[in-house]
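Q: Sequence in, structure out?
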Amino acid sequence: MSSNIPMQVRTALQNLGLPAPTLAWIQSALPNRNPLPPMPALIATVKTRLLALDLTIPGILEPPAPAFPPNLHNPEVRELKLSRDTLVQVLDIENITKSKWEQVEELEAIARGEQTRGREIIRLNENEDEDNGAQANNNEPQQQQRPAPAAPTTAAGSRAAAAAASKNATHRLLLQDCRGQTLHGLELRRVERVGIGTMSIGEKILLKRGTVVARGVVLLEPPTCTVFGGKVDAWHRAWVESRLARLKEAAGADARG
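A: Exactly. Output:
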């Protein structure tokens, strides 16, 4: 393997806005093939593997890796701005425009294979065989039949419905930097791809230089926030499995209060 390949990959990742990974990590992330795939494929592979990792693992990012300044956690600091682009990962996400019970009902509807859009129920796992059988038993002329509206039956359809539901929502995220420091982020203006069902736990977000932090909360808005994607599979599974129980517990506590 040419010693120049990891350097080329790192330069390409930096040009995409990502912080520089170490050359040692890039070399370990390259496919174990001879000959290697073309450079665009190498860059895509390393980027995907980077976005799927826990940023706090030592040896991934070139030191000194950009992280939250220590004074960001002080709620007495009225406002300051990040002095460097900082890559963070999502540990939690909440739609604060819905009550806990509304979120419980939404998750239970998704678990049943349906979501609501206005007054229309969208079934995500409709049995197409039953629909075909019902049409076969219908004696009306074919031209008089009105086909039922197509329902999204794929993961892409589910994500589209979730994105539509999140269009006017405001979300609060728990963000973690490469040092393990955490801060809450709040949508000041709607950020595309942020939403329940459209964002994964472990997903990477670049907070650009100049991002405002007010009273210990990162203010998220499109000009200073780039969602790169990615997912830490183990984290996401655990979050999905425990979220409904946590919401029900919180809703019960609110009702008792």
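The first strand starts at residue 79 and ends at 81.
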